[in-house]
Design goal:
Number of strands: 0
Distance between the termini: 18 Å
Order of helices and strands: H
Largest sheet: none
Structural class: mainly alpha
Helix content: 40-55%
Strand content: under 5%
Radius of gyration: 18 Å
Number of helices: 1
Shape: flat
Length: 52
């Protein structure tokens, strides 16, 4: 069984700045890796499994 949880964050100004900085760094690293590879990542094709 797959369970899902939904969370809502209410960061204060200091936390909001830290989150923006963290996600900004992750974006820069991701873009550097894509540039180093020379081509963008391809989406993964998933196979559907039948229950027969």
């Amino acid at each position: 069984m797959v369970k899902r949880y939904r969370y809502r964050l209410y960061p204060d100004d200091a936390q909001r700045g830290q989150l923006a900085r963290t996600f900004g760094c992750a974006r820069v690293v991701h873009n550097d890796v894509v540039a180093a590879r020379g081509r963008p990542l391809q989406p993964v094709k998933r196979r559907r499994r039948s229950l027969t």
